[in-house]
Amino acid sequence: MHLRSIHKLDMRKAPGMPGHKSYAEMEEKMANHNILLVCGSGASSGFMAANIRKAASARGLEWKVTARSESEILNYVEDIDCLMVGPHLESNLGVIEEDCEGYDIKVSLLTKEAYSKLNGELAVDQILEMFGEK
Amino acid sequence: MDILMNALIKWLENSFAPKMSKVNNNIWVVTLKDSIMQTLPFIFLGSIFCCLAIIEDFVTLPFSFWTPFGWTMSKISLLVAFLIPFNYCEKKRYRKQRLIAGLTGMLLFMMVVTPEFIADGTVGFGHDSLGAGGMFVAILTGIVTSVIFGAFAKFTFFKDDSAVPDFVRQWFDALLPIGLTIVIGWVIVLILNVDIYKIIVNLFMPLQNGLNTLPGFTFFMFFTCFIYSMGISSWVLTPIGQPVRLASITTNLGLVAAGTATASNLLIYTEGLVYCTYMWVGGIGCTLPLVIMLMRSKSKELSSLGKACLVPGIFNINEPVIFGCIAWNPYLMVPMWLQGIIIPILTYVFTKFIALAPLPHVQFELWYAPYPIGTIMNIMSQGAGALIRALIFLVISVIVSSAIWYPFFKAYETKRVQEEQEKIAAK
Fold first, then answer.
1. β-bridge partners, A82
2. B381 to chain A nearest CA, in Å?
3. pLDDT tens digits for B191-229?
4. Which of A67, B104, B179, B324 has a CA 20 to 30 Å removed from the CA of B85?
5. What are the chain B neighbours of A91 within 8 Å (beta carbons)?
6. Does B131 share its domain with B16?
7. How far apart are CA B422 and CA A103, in angstroms?
8. Which domains does chain A have, with CATH numbers?
């Protein structure tokens, strides 16, 4: 049993009670994601990445978040499991998804709401939902 | 008025944006764009060396920063010549060929620029063609190499059950595309003496000249603001814009070195001018004044948006404010388009017709640097008088830009405040 996951257990949800999760299930759900954010040059996504890191670590999530230019995606496809794309690259989504073909990577556009205020919380929520971890 | 705007926006959404999507997903656009953008670190480093070289105007050093400048900024076409076939093979999933394709592309490029080297007669690697001057040539040799390698990627000399060992097969299957590319370069350039470099430079001369005229420059700046106002990244224009910008600054540096640079013969369309010296303070469309207006707004939403956009805006990063309130918002798209028309014209007039604002004599392209650092770095080599004039023009430009934003911002703010009050009243 990892001490790290104990504080995430809701102690009221004992075995047999609704909403109970075993330690193993808890471990599985809080996966360590390796996330790449891309925008044109890696600049605006850099600000976003910093805010996502802040929001993620405040929630006790151990994520790796990197921001780069979308011209560098192929350098990262072997390491990441999640690729978040700046909304201004929506019309590039076709090639971006092709780059990720064959790799186990969830690709999605960051929402305009999240990107306009560089809102790390909204982005973390979006990523958790993508992985079914909310 | 509202109906007209909404109709226009619907049309843009339904016919223009999908076309941009097609363009953005075209493999050649992506390959060229990525290859050029992957050399950005070298361009930024070159800008830093260029700044340091300014010191040499005041102090004599036992070496020169122009040397490392030459080995970074002035080699990017050579780098792009490698990167285009490399990236093309990556995108097409011909991963096995990507390295030899890139290397062959680089060799073809060097063959094509050989006549220039010989004509120049200087010892060593210092020729414009390897750097900013040769970008269009690097693009062409890159495409030719990519097409050849792409055609041969599926081909093999040998049958699957051949007794020849795998690594030997691989060599032979590589020999054909490499050989074909090299022989083409050899025959055309070195035997038939067709100066491909000159042909390509002349072919793109109309484009280069055109984008440096008042109407051409203004149109291109407007188009950048236009697509960006629809939330479409303007990096797609890199394969066209970047080679022209680089060729322009190379020409300008040549004129400066020869001592013959004047306000009328220097070219305006350079990265340093548009993104670091004047014009786009806070990002494309000169959005920093808008961000400040947002921060001080009576609307709660807008002021919190403004606050979030301030720090990126200071570093000339404006995706947040574009998506926060400009993209697809008729109230702010229109002034964005006006920025794309009025500011370029203003800049052109006051740098070339009325020689108030000096054009840069150096190549500083670190567009993340907050204004007026870029202005100072680009102009200070021309002395204090020039710098003061540059800063005066910068202030004028920002005032004009703010005057464009203001009425539209006010109209938008009124609408938002009204909506917020209605929400509160409804509770």
1. A35, A106
2. 28
3. 888 888 888 888 888 999 999 999 999 999 999 999 999
4. A67
5. 17, 20-21, 23-25, 232, 236
6. no
7. 49
8. 31-130 (3.40.50.2300)
